[in-house]
Design goal:
Helix content: 40-55%
Shape: globular
Structural class: alpha/beta
Strand order of the largest sheet: 3-2-1-4-5-6-7
Number of helices: 9
CATH topology: Rossmann fold
Number of strands: 7
Radius of gyration: 18 Å
Strand content: 5-15%
Length: about 260
């Protein structure tokens, strides 16, 4: 596979989609730079990746702090000397409440991590990839990046903006043989999704069971998305042998909940 031996930087890798992607990339032979605010989860992941034979640099960081992002980038360059693949996975769910109840602080925090953090990582790796003559950048948007989701305004705004960032960067970086794409997951299995749905149900004044019924009815496959399925989409967009003519795209992995 073409990612064998490539240096892949995966943000927020300690759990969920990030962890599934890191494990998949390790099995494909990539060298990995993984970072997360969850230090314990990060160390557990490091052990799992090394058990698969991967070379790993694991560093704690806060995705909303550009100085900490700089530190991860600098350590990566010192350790591996390059970067071939960036997976912008870091994100927070933000508040679940009506737009008129959202504080400026809640708005800023959500966009700081979800949008600015992704932009900043892209900004750092682009000059390296230009010098290398190519690279792969994959960011995580969401089905909420394509349609409104009530009482999730900051999150929706950040994920819609990721699509705009992706398309514009694809135009700018395409002449340098750098592809820039994003993946739009639907409702993903795992603890984070459980927490989000509990908060959404509370905000709407309904039970979690009622929310689950409404949510799954909108997906033709009538189920949630395993994080491993999202990881496969990320791998596809990161592998020159599989997707070298694809750029500026927003790929759905939603069990059919979004088809545009």
């Amino acid at each position: 596979m073409s990612i064998k031996g490539k240096v892949a930087w995966i943000t927020a890798a300690a759990a969920g989609i990030g962890k599934a992607t890191a494990l998949l990339f390790a099995r494909e032979g990539a060298k990995l730079v993984v970072c997360d605010i969850d230090e314990a989860g990060l160390q557990q992941l490091k052990g799992e990746l090394e058990a698969l034979g991967a070379e790993v640099l694991a560093l704690p960081y806060d995705a909303g702090d550009t100085a900490q992002i700089d530190a991860v980038f600098n350590a990566m360059m010192q350790t591996f000397g390059t970067v071939d693949i960036l997976v912008n996975n870091a994100g927070v769910t933000g508040p679940s409440k009506p737009v008129y109840e959202i504080s400026v602080e809640e708005w800023d925090k959500t966009l700081e991590v979800n949008l600015r953090g992704s932009f900043y990582c892209l900004k750092l790796v682009a000059p390296v990839m230009i010098k290398n003559g190519g690279g792969k950048i994959v960011s995580l948007s969401s089905q909420t990046g394509k349609r409104a989701l009530v009482e999730r305004t900051p999150y929706a705004a950040s994920k819609m903006a990721i699509i705009g960032l992706t398309r514009t960067a694809a135009e700018e970086l395409g002449p340098h043989n750098i592809t820039v794409n994003c993946v739009c997951p639907g409702a993903v299995e795992g603890p984070r999704g459980v927490w989000v749905r509990a908060n959404m149900a509370k905000a709407r004044g309904i039970t979690v069971e009622e929310l689950e019924k409404i949510s799954l009815a909108g997906a033709p496959l009538r189920r949630r998305v395993p994080p491993e399925d999202v990881a496969q989409a990320i791998l596809f967009l990161s592998d020159a042998e599989r997707s070298n003519s694809i750029t500026g795209e927003d790929m759905n992995v939603t069990c059919g909940a979004v088809m545009y």
